[in-house]
Design goal:
The protein is of the alpha+beta class. It is 35% helix and 24% strand. The chain starts with a helix and ends with a strand. 22% of the residues are buried.
Length: 98
């Protein structure tokens, strides 16, 4: 999600997250990354992913957090392995990537 949203190579994103404390094959708190990068935070919008993208995240690059997973949204298109699964889930938090 980080590599896609920031449009940097995957290995560069992986290295940056490792430097911030990410462990191999483990989850990572995007709060730490977002604060480091100064991204605008949108906490608990109480919307499904589909509605959030249609109303808010339809322009620009975003990282969306749902329970247990993050993915990128670029100009309204989900960039994830299984984008259709995420549409009905509720957004826990989102960050507009600068």
């Amino acid at each position: 999600a980080y590599a896609a949203a920031t449009e940097i190579p995957y290995m560069q994103a992986h290295a940056e997250l490792f430097m911030l404390g990410r462990k191999v094959k483990r989850g990572f708190s995007f709060l730490k990354l977002a604060k480091t990068k100064g991204w605008q935070e949108y906490p608990r919008p109480h919307m499904t992913v589909e509605r959030y993208i249609n109303l808010i995240a339809n322009q620009g690059n975003w990282i969306i957090l749902i329970r247990g997973h993050v993915f990128a949204v670029i100009n309204g298109a989900i960039h994830d392995l299984y984008p259709a699964i995420n549409l009905s889930r509720h957004v826990k938090m989102a960050w507009r990537v600068k």
